[in-house]
Amino acid sequence: MAGGFGVATGGVEFEAKITPLVIISCIMAASGGxxxxxxxxxxxxxxxxxxxxxxxxxxxxxNQQDPGLTGxxxxxxxxGLQLFTSSLYLAALLATFxxxxxxxxxxxxxxxxxxxxxxxAGTAFNAAAFNLxxxxxxxxxxxxxxxxxxxxxxxxxxxxxxTRIRGALNILFQLNITIGILVANxxxxxxxxxxxxxxxxxxxxxxxxxxxLLTVGSxxxxxxxxxxxxxxxxxxxxxxxxxxxxVDNVDPEYLEIVEASRAAAEVKxxxxxxxxxxxxxSLVIAIVMQIFQQFTGINAIMFYAPVLFQTLGFKxxxxxxxxxxxxxxxxxxxxxxxxxxxxxxxxxxxxEAGVQMFLSQMGVAIVMGLKVKDHSNNLxxxxxxxxxxxxxxxxxxxxxxxxxxxxxxxxxxxxAEARSAGQSVVVSTNMLFTxxxxxxxxxxxxxxxxxxxxxxxxxxxxxxxxxxxxxxxTKNIPIDEMNDRVWKKHWYWQRYMxxxxxxPKSKDQV
Length: 510
Hints:
By secondary structure, the protein is an all-alpha fold. The protein has helices spanning 20-30, 32-46, 50-56, 58-65, 79-105, 108-127, 132-160, 166-191, 199-205, 208-220, 225-230, 234-245, 251-265, 270-273, 280-295, 298-311, 316-340, 346-371, 380-399, 402-413, 419-448, 451-470, 482-485, and strands at residues 5-9, 12-16. Strands 1-2 form a two-stranded antiparallel sheet. It has one domain (17-509): Up-down Bundle (Growth Hormone, Chain: A), CATH 1.20.1250.20. It has 23 helices and two strands. It is a multi-pass membrane protein. Keywords: Membrane, Sugar transport, Symport, Transmembrane, Transmembrane helix, Transport. Residues 25-475 form the Major facilitator superfamily (MFS) profile domain.
């Protein structure tokens, strides 16, 4: 395909081409994002379908038919309904620790296969559910699949991609998540029109398509050279490295991977190793980014978009239609990130988006505060369109920043000896706070009303300040050179980069 290019790495050139094998492998692996995105998008639409509510959540169905019983903000406030959505993320939180082990010992490819099988099993339970227990079991199995997929896929993408396009290829995972959400919204819109009462079963059952894509894709892709070399398969690792780079001279990169793997093998307890001083910058930023990503409020909107738009006074059809629009904006804006992340850099996207998200959410909060009351709704057509535009502006800015970069930056900044354990902490932290938001949002909306958007705006303000002061630029830097070229040169994090000791040298450095 493209011609060769070199990456300067401390005076050594890593020769590489953008080979068809790399592109195909990354597309196949990123299809796991389709499954994750479909799960995120499908639950919100299904939980707004009267037939689904009547069968599994009759109390919510009654409130939906007569909002006067609870008021506009509280008609969906139900812990069981929230558990249907959030149970997936609780299972993902627990599964990611098992996934850390399989990613290290069995490889990235095998872990993706396990994820695909779990997705297929969860889909079968959900589509065939005849009681709430079966629904929850299905969601738990899907959650286990998410834990395994989110552990293996970002690592796979970062390790197999040439440095110059690592950001763009890694964001394929996030792009597929957004496509999955959009497809789920479109399917929900279509199945909600069915009059046989089984529209929700079709919505949940079609999750089998992306699940099958990931399962088949995981059988086709090659494992990463880093994973093969770390498991002692040196010759196979070198052979795959030649294939994915499209050149014969891979010795410089191969030797660096071997050395990084040797250092990683000396670490007896990867999770304990994460706490060492030199890994602290990567760990702190990874954890904080996952917390901030959820407290932007994005998943509150993505999980419950139809419910939220109905709260704002949109009719059932209009709320699902509005969700499709926000889903489409999500996909297109993620493409903006793919185009800009390796040119403009990570920091610029995060900071610009912080300002845009803050202004958009403040606008929604003000409109809702003035026009949407407990037992009345004066939003009107014009203001309804304005709210939809503000929500789209918020979704767009998130999609080209904190959405993909929340996964990309942690996956490329951990040192080799901490990479698998670090990714496990990233996924588990993300799933923990996704669970918290999913389980709490409808109750928060009921009690905080329009103030919930002021709450999320405050978090966006704080995270933008954190980006300015503490998140370094990592574009075009090989993942095994982050310590020397990023952390040791950062005004704050350099104090933790001691080559000879595990901790800072002096008290004033702490």
